């Protein structure tokens, strides 16, 4: 059974701080996605990474796929209250189905 | 840009009652999915439909049935609701990534 573990589970930081959240597995994924979910809404896709070692930037968010395609990280620079939410990673080994991690709940205090 | 539309948004059922959760997408996607989200458990796949006319079980299918009515619509039915099915249910369709609906919050008492 493929599992995706995310850490930390909870993170509360002050506005302007930097943070990194992690998504780890013992399985190899052909692609991995990051989502952000706000209360009362469904997850929204942020990025897809497909190549080992790939780095993608989305404004203040930097996503990296591990060289072995078993792990990924999300780094946020100068966090803002609008970054508050549940961050989910999801991976697939090439089938129709993605496995979701349990999420990192981020709260950015003004 | 409706994307994925789920109805209802909220529902309270008594144990043993049945109901159908509706989902429709307007993006012409082939694949559609039903997930449930519980605190600390993440999103767990109940059923999916890779294309019109096909459905397959996911990780937690017991107590549920699905119907892929056409390319747009994928419904989830609870035949005899149980308190363990209290959860938030999300429908999604897949293009380059998942597009999720806004969810149905179901409470079974």
Tell me the total number of β-strands of chain B: 11
- Tertiary shape of chain A: globular
What class would the helix/strand composition of chain B place it in? mainly beta
Structural class by secondary-structure content of chain A:
mainly beta
Q: Which spans of chain B have pLDDT < 50 for at least 5 consecutive residues?
A: none
Distance between the termini of chain B: 35 Å
Rg on CA atoms of chain A, Å: 13 Å
Q: What is the overall shape of chain B?
A: globular
Assembly status = heterodimer
Helix % of chain B is under 10%
Percentage of residues in DSSP E strands of chain B: over 45%
Order of helices and strands of chain B: EEEEEEEEEEE
Low-confidence stretches of chain A: none
Per DSSP E runs of 2 or more residues, the count of β-strands of chain A stands at 11
Q: Quick recap of the structure?
A:
The complex is a heterodimer of chains A (110) and B (109). Helix content of chain A is 0%, strand content 53%. Chain A has 110 residues and is mostly beta strands.
Q: Can you describe what's shown?
A:
The complex is a heterodimer of chains A (110) and B (109). With 110 residues, chain A is mostly beta strands. Chain A has strands at residues 5-7, 10-14, 19-24, 31-37, 44-49, 55-58, 61-65, 71-76, 85-92, 99-100, 104-109. In chain A, 0% of the residues lie in helices and 53% in strands. The model of chain A has no long low-confidence stretch (mean pLDDT 93). In chain B, the strands form 2 sheets. In chain B, strands 2, 4, 5, 6, 9, 10 and 11 form a 7-stranded mixed sheet that branches. Chain B is globular and about 35 Å long. With 109 residues, chain B is mostly beta strands. The chains are: A mainly beta (110), B mainly beta (109). Chain A binds chain B through residues 33, 35, 40-45, 48, 88, 90, 96-98, 100-103, and chain B through 4, 31, 35, 40-45, 48, 50, 58, 90, 92, 94, 96-103.
């Amino acid at each position: 059974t493929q599992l995706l573990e995310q850490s930390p589970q909870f993170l509360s930081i002050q506005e302007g701080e930097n943070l990194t959240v992690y998504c780890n597995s013992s399985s190899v994924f052909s692609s991995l996605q990051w989502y952000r979910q706000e209360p009362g809404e469904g997850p929204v896709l942020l990025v897809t990474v497909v190549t080992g070692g790939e780095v993608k930037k989305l404004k203040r968010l930097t996503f990296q796929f591990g060289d072995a395609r078993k792990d990924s990280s999300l780094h946020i620079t100068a966090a803002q209250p609008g970054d508050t939410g549940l961050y989910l990673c999801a991976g697939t080994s090439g089938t129709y189905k993605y496995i979701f991690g349990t999420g990192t709940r981020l709260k950015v205090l003004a | 840009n409706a994307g994925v539309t789920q109805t209802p948004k909220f529902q309270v059922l008594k144990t043993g009652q049945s109901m159908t959760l509706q989902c429709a997408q307007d993006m012409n996607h082939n694949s559609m999915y039903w997930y449930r989200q519980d605190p600390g458990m993440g999103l767990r796949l109940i059923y999916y439909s890779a294309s019109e006319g096909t459905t397959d079980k996911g990780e937690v299918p017991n107590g549920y049935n699905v119907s892929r009515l056409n390319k747009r619509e994928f419904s989830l039915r609870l035949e005899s609701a149980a308190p363990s099915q209290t959860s938030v249910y999300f429908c999604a369709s897949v293009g380059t990534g998942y597009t999720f609906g806004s969810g149905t919050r179901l409470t079974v008492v």
